[in-house]
Amino acid sequence: MRPFTYERATSPAQAATAVLSQQGARFIAGGTNLLDLMKLQIETPTHLVDVQDLELDQITQETDGGLRIGALVTNTALAADRRVRSDYAVLSRAILAGASGQLRNKATTGGNLLQRTRCPYFYDTNQPCNKRQAGTGCAAIEGASRQLAVIGGSAACIATNPSDMAVAMRLLDARVETVDAQGNVRSIDIADFHKLPGETPHVETALAPGELITAVLLPKPVGGQHVYHKVRDRASYAFALVSVAAILQPDGTGRVAVGGIAPKPWRTDAADAALPQGAEAVARHLLAGAAPTRDNAFKIELVERTLAGILHDAKG
Q1: Under 8 Å CB-to-CB from 232, ≥6 apart: which residues?
Q2: How far apart are CA 243 and CA 229, in angstroms?
Q3: In this predicted structure, what is the pLDDT of residue 236?
Q4: Mean pLDDT score, 208-216
Q5: CA 193, 298, 266: angle at the middle one, nearest 5?
Q6: Angle of helix 164-171 relative to helix 89-96, nearest 10 degrees?
Q7: What is the spatial distance between Cα 1 and Cα 16, in angstroms, rounded to a whole number?
Q8: Which of 117, 276, 284, 301 could link 159 by a cystine bridge, Cβ 3.0 to 4.6 Å?
Q9: For strand 59-61 and strand 175-179, is the pairing parallel, antiparallel, or unpaired?
Q10: Would you tell me the crossing angle of helices 279-286 and 298-314 to the nearest 10 degrees?
Q11: Can you say how many angstroms the Cα of residue 26 is from the centroid of all Cα atoms in its chain?
Q12: What end-to-end distance do the CA atoms of the chain give, in Å?
């Protein structure tokens, strides 16, 4: 790990100013992903701005019936919140499907949305990786790609987003609230928050330099049956090959989002509209334009089979 300086922020705007004003500065909260990347020298911040004192650790009811989740609410606290468990159960289930209890006790809501890919070539600094170092190439394209994207990738990157929580947030139409160094508050639709790689896979989110996540806003509950199924290579502590989050209404309508198949949580209006027609139709719309590799083509069928299992179980 390379030397760095450190400070504790006193307000969100002051934190944003501190990061913006020093090249190579980064925010740190739980640090469950950042510190691992620093040990491997994949992340090499010159200065860390600790935001843990900013009192962004509350979950509050909004006047429109939704919830405001502070960026520093831990994954454990969020999954256990009574209102989340009753009205946004898919979020609670997605969080509990990820990481370990120890990690969930430290990981934060804002940090979870920013966790970086688990593509093996991103972690191997002897291999070229456009996400780790822009313009160096992508070893995954011709390499081992079992875990990687079947849709949404590009000739520059086929890494997947690893977050379980983000898949549920996408399903729930969450919004990400931020503040910049001038104190300006911005609200970003979760659908636009994570970027597809295109030719710039190192640009992973819609955040501007120095912009700090302060909260995630959930709209009022939509009812229905909430489901999160995660398919992985072992029973615990593994990232998803495919994960499916769904809210199913009694009349057969609903919404569905999928993780483990793309550089961002994957959802389409056409797939939502096809839910009454069954899993095959939903998968066909979700994966239109998919470009799997030989290693990960199985994910196409796995998405449909996971959806079919969910729809079968929902019928009781």
Answers
A1: 238, 239, 240, 241
A2: 6
A3: 76
A4: 97
A5: 15
A6: 170
A7: 24
A8: 117
A9: unpaired
A10: 140
A11: 19
A12: 53
**Looking up tokens 């295109």, which residue turns up?**
198
What's the distance, CA 87 to chain centroid? Answer: 20
- Angle at CA of residue 132, ends 129 and 135, nearest 5°: 60
Query: What span, in angstroms and rounded, lies between the C-alpha atoms of 144 and 159?
Result: 12
- 3-state class of 60 per DSSP? strand
pTM above 0.90, yes or no: yes
Tokens 């520059």 belong to residue: 156
- How far, in Å, CA of 169 to CA of 91, rounded? 7
Instruction: Report the alpha-carbon distance of residue 194 to residue 116 in Å, rounded.
Output: 11
**C-alpha triplet 98, 104, 107: angle, nearest 5°:** 110
Other CB atoms closer than 10 Å to residue 39's CB: what's the count? 10
Spatial strand order in the sheet of 175-179: 59-61, 67-70, 212-218, 175-179, 185-189
Q: For the chain, how many residues are written? A: 316
Burial class of residue 309, CB neighbours in 10 A (0-12, 13-18, 19+): middle
Distances (CA, A) of 267 to 85, 166, 167, 168, 245: 23, 12, 9, 11, 10
Tokens standing for residue 2: 């390379």
Task: Give tens-digit pLDDT for 252-292.
Answer: 999 999 999 999 999 999 999 999 999 999 999 999 999 99
* pLDDT at 157 exceeding the cut of 90: yes
CA–CA dist 267, 288 (Å, integer): 12
